[in-house]
Amino acid sequence: MISFPRIALAFALAGLAVVGVARADGSGDPAAVSSQDGKYLDKNGIPTFKVFPDGKVDWYTYAGFLRYSANCLSCHGPDGLGSTYAPSLVDALKTLNYGDFLGTVAGGKKNVSVSQDLVMPALGTNKNVMCYIDAIYVYLRARSDGAVGRGRPENQAPKPEAFSKAEDECMG
Amino acid sequence: MKISPSKVLLLAGVMLSAMSMSSARADDATARSQPMGANWVSPTGGYSNQRYSTLDQITAANAGKLQVAWTFSTGVLRGHEGSPLVIDNVMYLVTPFPNNVFALDLNNNGKILWKYMPKQDPNVIPVMCCDTVNRGVAYSDGKIFLHQADTTLVALDAKTGKVDWSVKTDDPAKGATGTGAPMVIGDKVYVGVSGGEFGVRGWLAAYSTKDGKQVWRAYSMGPDSDILVDPEKTTDLGKPIGKDSSLKSWQGDQWKIGGGDTWGWMSYDPKLNLMYYGSGNPSTWNPTQRPGDNKYSMTIWARDPDTGMAKWVYQMTPHDQWDYDGVNEMILSDQDIDGATVPTLVHFDRNGFGYTLNRDTGALLVAQKYDPVVNWATKINMDKSSKDYGRPEVVAQYAPGSKGTDVNYTNICPAALGTKDEQPAAYSPDTKLFYVPTNHVCMDYEPFRVSYTAGQPYVGATLSMYPPKGQTNMGNFIAWDATKGKIVWSIPEQFSVWSGALATKGGVVFYGTLEGYLKAVDAKTGKELYSFKTPSGIIGNVMTYEHDGKQYVAVLSGVGGWAGIGLAAGLTDPHAGLGAVGGYAALSQYTNLGGQLTVFALPQS
Questions:
Q1: What is the extent of the structural domain holding A159?
Q2: Does the N-terminal peptide bond of residue B284 adopt cis geometry, omega within 30 degrees of 0?
Q3: Assigned CATH topology for domain B46-601
Q4: Are strands B508-512 and B461-466 parallel, antiparallel or unpaired?
Q5: Does the interface ipTM go beyond 0.85?
Q6: What's the number of domains chain A is made of?
Q7: Which of B127, B448, B462 should we substitute to test contact with A (largest number of A Cβ atoms within 10 Å)?
Q8: Whole-prediction pTM
Q9: Is 60 exceeded by the pLDDT of residue A3?
Q10: How distant, in Å, are the alpha carbons of A136, B36, B300 from that of B421?
């Protein structure tokens, strides 16, 4: 669930340069260094994925697959790989950071010119998206980093109670 | 003043030539009631929706010699559904958003006579679920009719392109958009609405061709007065539907955002004076949020075009759990069934069943799978004495929601995009076969709870798609016998066949592939006669016309639509297990965005 301090942190950290890491996406090194109520965070406090040695994924990655498919697949295609007109998010997150991701989802995007009519809606008031936005980010981050393959994750960590609670409060 | 005999003769001569000029071309209504010929007068290839032409210059013997005759760039990318019209040597076509309309002079090498370029708010684009398509303009009595993405219904002067009148039919802020092709009967133009993924309650409306005033509007669900039914006279498989039949099949107020949108094709029988169309999926995709049969989503409607009153209805997929919209074309033809000639309606539904009904009475004659892999139902109950007469016998393990939400239902065939989507089939009265472009894709489907906000997607399910087990082709082009409900021949295609088909007296059937191939096949055997790769994947409908004594075949290329969303990156089999190598072909490896009309003809002899 989004909180104002988290968004502010994300924007503040978005400007940090990424230095000397073997693996990095738009938000930097995705390695999970801490967790809180089943949600994993990287060293900068940005939500990230966790894949366990047996291939199991954390709950947020799994929930992100479901919520991505429900809300984003209809333009961006299955598994974040893009359609004939909407870009691949697997590609996009290689350079797009968490703050800009949140901004684009909430505020929408318009590329309208003589040669194209590409419009992404502003989803900031869409509870079906925003109540799960961290999960969607975590899933796409995992896909972008090649940590999670195509299709429904086969095995996932159990649903944390804190997630259920936040979901109920947010969805109303 | 006295009129001199020479003046009388002159006057008579003028009148005579005027009369012969107008009777040289059948009047518009007659032209739409007959098979297509030199002209292609309506988006559906005539009221019958047969998409059949009497032109026979191109035959099975010479189709191999076809060549590209001319081309036209539409100037727009994104999915090009629909087809152009040709009337009296002028071609009319409309592009995807922003829905530019062109009138091309065939007497002058396709010179642009006029263009209509509406200014629409691009914010309508995000509420178009399945690409920014438009399925075509209609023509009648010197006017061109277009239903724009922003739900503006506009009448243009066919000679000049000037706006004659313009009305708004619904509200994109609530998720309603226009994508379907209008139909004209008499002095009325008919349109439906898109928005089933946004909770838009579907409707079909009649507007005056003269001034755009709404004459009637019939919703797909709600009180009897909203849906224009008569509890005693409107029948469902022969039985009166009774009072409040729609309301009784919904819980609470869910019907108000109930979907049942009407974005597909319409047909019309001038003798019976009945118009036919189908309604789409109920809203949301999560079936547990809308208990009940959800009438009248997924329904074939037969209505009186003058009043809108429904004569009969038939709901194909009660309480939809798969997004199998019922909007596909209703093809009208006379068929010999059990020794009698029956006026039939044949419909290839998303749900994988090919239905044959008596279009006068609404009686159900045949309902068979037109792809053997269809598994969500074993069959349609054909026992007239059963309380489940006409209902599908649903297989619980393939019925999402049957075990509640947050459960993944696997291996359901067909996938939500159906055994066939809006891409229309064709019928040849010569072979008595239907030519059907099909999808051959299955899915895993998981429903879950969603909340409704006007103008935002209201979907509530996730899905993974893949070809049926053990197969690699994602489509077939088939020939179908509607009296028996049997596949006569089947051409496998790598990708779903997403174009509209065309049948001709010359014994040639045409269709287009998602890689962009325009193909001609023998109507009797399916043998390939000709193939040409156009600049982009084809989701348009092949049509034919005659100019200066020469037959032409034309199709729009421009990949997109739902095919462009679901197939661009390729499919993978989630059940292949760890270590499975790769997936199935990605459409993006075969074609790119485009926007072109390609016109074919035989070489100059």
A1: 4-171
A2: yes
A3: Methanol Dehydrogenase; Chain A (2.140.10)
A4: unpaired
A5: no
A6: 1
A7: B462
A8: 0.91
A9: no
A10: 29, 23, 15
